[in-house]
Protein 1
Amino acid sequence: MPELPEVETIRRDLIKKILNKKIAGVKVYNAKSVGGTASKFSTALLGNSLTAIERRGKLLIWHLKKGADFLLVHLKMTGQLIYVKERGNKVEVVAGGHKLSENDIEGLPNKHTRVALVFTDGPAHSLKHSVAGESARNVTRSVAGGPARSVARSETGGGQLFFNDLRMFGYMKLAPASVVQKTLNRFGPEPNTKDWKFDYFSALFQKRKNTNLKALLLNQELIAGLGNIYVDEVCWLAGVKPTRRVGAVTVAEQKKLFLGIPKILRAAIKHRGTTFRNFLDSNGRKGNYTDFLNVYGRGGEKCRRCQGIIKKIRAAGRGTHFCPGCQK
DNA sequence: GTGTTTGTTATCAA
DNA sequence: CTTGATAACAAACA
């Protein structure tokens, strides 16, 4: 469940790994993941390179050197962008010293791989362009040796980026500047920037007084980047129940929430995000903020602040965790 | 077979 | 038009 801190972690890593490298190979395992037209996608990316990677909320905006389009990348719930550096025929994990489980980067591409990009530092030797069928399984069956293998054996030193997405909600879509602008304009302010102002935040509690706090904080058009995990954590930190009617949140509580949001997001970025289920960073490694969660995923456990028992309910259609003891 | 997981959008009601 | 709530999407797991 990549939220702002997880997407930001990936963004920072990808800048180091793939910026300005030539895209020498493109493989689409699932056309839907790239907006439906795999050939258009491949053509736009082959021989191209990234000049910048921006983030807005949970959305990544890839700037391409050639062509008029940008690439919008959204991981939704189960998307992963895993970069594997290549040495000869052997695939090598970039970040060592960390044990990887079977579900991590070994065996990539796997059945959840929807797109693979091959990078090279130098000029592209051979530009591979292939479009696969519905799943990696089909691909492997239909072609001798499997196209997946042909990617792994590509003669490049730049490495490969795998877009894995179990549930296929995520996407990598080409978009012209006009569409990008329209998309970005819909987001609320970024909590970790100078755009994060209390006057704006406080006004939301008047404007949206009839919903509950959880729904307010989850709304990307009002605040960019919070998702289910961090909303629960922010509410705990501020001592307010996520189910509280927005109109009944006091100014003092608004202040705690206002300060708590960037505080938690920054801490989570510092610890490279939270891995609760599917999140892996671009090295295929888990996020470490999981150890710092106070309520999310701790239903039935003791509150670290008041020794109450964390409750899990459903609010705004989401699994919601809070402490009845110290959240009012 | 049932319920649960959640980011975003579509849809509907008020 | 706005707000608010809910279903739908899709795959896997307990």
Protein 2
Amino acid sequence: MREGEDGMEKAEKTVSIQTLKRLPAYLNYLTALPKDENANISAKAIAEALSLGEIQVRKDLAAVSDGGRPKVGYGVQTLIADLEAFLGYHDVSDAVLVGAGKLGRALLSYEGFQSYGLNIVAGFDTDAREGATAGGKPIFPMEKLPDLVTRLNIRIGIITAPAEAAQEVCDLLTTNGVLAIWNFAPAHLNAQKNILVRNENMAASLAMLRKHLDSAMQ
Amino acid sequence: MREGEDGMEKAEKTVSIQTLKRLPAYLNYLTALPKDENANISAKAIAEALSLGEIQVRKDLAAVSDGGRPKVGYGVQTLIADLEAFLGYHDVSDAVLVGAGKLGRALLSYEGFQSYGLNIVAGFDTDAREGATAGGKPIFPMEKLPDLVTRLNIRIGIITAPAEAAQEVCDLLTTNGVLAIWNFAPAHLNAQKNILVRNENMAASLAMLRKHLDSAMQ
DNA sequence: TAGATTGTTAATCGATTAACAATC
DNA sequence: TAGATTGTTAATCGATTAACAATC
């Protein structure tokens, strides 16, 4: 796993990878809060709701917002705005997806990505039949990938191809300018240092679930 | 961790969470190796292939195998067997899935889980029509969940329900004996301490991809 | 003011990496 | 034996937690 580089940041502070991973959970929790509820919330309340440490919550929030007020807490709406801004949920990133099998088509159809600022513009597959779509998104044959990716300046590639094809797909994407890869294939991808590969590691999740059962039931 | 049942059996050591996450990657890589290749492999070779540290690989492998031989390396087949044994890929765990939307049906249809020792026996959904299936697995109405889960002694629950329903589903599963939850819903789940909740956190992955782009393109 | 709650600096913990000894 | 490669003990690094000072 490669760490994100933190070299040149501007106004926004750098956050650790672990913090970055928790930020969507805060946003999620805050937006789900009933509208009529209190306009402020304490770190303690957030921590309890998300099963986190109180101090951890404060440190995390300090990295993205310009602070709460002692005795009062954080303004819910301000915090939501700060988190959304930090996570870039307002500007949309375009992405392509490669491998339109069941998982690929499910992701193409998933509307939730929109709210995270991700827009999958198209899927690609080796045997895409003319006019194929999923969730309203076109599925093109692989031949069209280089042109579309370069022309639309796509920076994010999602790989849902079979493991054997994943490295090849990764290479194809990155040679056409993709800088970040979201890999659902159970394969390690080798890419240049400036490319971020994020593995959605189902096997690892499963390993953790099963090890827990081993110890819970022994 | 379990001690060997008889004296000869090597006692499985405890592994850190981080190590556990990497184990499937080793297994994956080793099984993908061409059959005619060398029967032994060095930690260095594995490390290079998976972009890991050499020492890290050795430490990880030390936790699951009874060791390589200096100057020779690790026996590929032995290592595969040790990893599979440790990860429990031979004994099958049954699971149920709740929420038969697009993602849920995609997971129900995904054959890859079999090789990880996971068998999803059925899906459940609030509006499952009579006789519905996905990937050959039946999809039942929620009312049938308690009986089936308790009767088959299901210990793993997969949640692909909408965020609003996720907590309720979690409660339903755990009150019927489920001990490990694989949560794909973008919601934090509160569960008792003895329950493991593993979040497949798409929003967090996305956050990492986009932050990388921010810094890569600034 | 007193009490609650924030933010920061220091201590602890866990995981990775480095140094090195063991061994085939 | 010499060299490669393993395994272990020690040092470093990063993240979490604790202690405490600041402030509304």
